[in-house]
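Possible regression after last week's pipeline update?

I re-ran a chain I had predicted before the update to compare outputs. Posting the input and the new output here so someone can diff against the archived version. Not blocking, just want to make sure nothing changed silently.
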Amino acid sequence: MIPAESIQQFEERFLQSPTNKTKPSSGIQEQREALLKELIHEYGEEKLDALGKNGVWEILQQKAGGLFHRSESTMKDFYKKQKLIKFSPGRKTKHNH
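New output (post-update):
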């Protein structure tokens, strides 16, 4: 169980507030990249590479589903724009994370 305090801190840190509509949509990319950066620090690039883009996306959805909704174009755009990790080509086997 995650304490409500932790969820609130996470939302304040990573999710746009509904009242702040002046941020450009690139702010969402920045927020996503900030979470990816934390994930890289937590798991390491090698493990994330082994999980593949879909596996990493699933973990990111668990951490912040609102930022990482399931859409093929959203996922492709995110990985195309980010420069934090480069995934090896090829299919990945599903790993437990």
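Follow-up from reviewer: compared with the archived run. The radius of gyration is 14 Å. Marking as no regression found.
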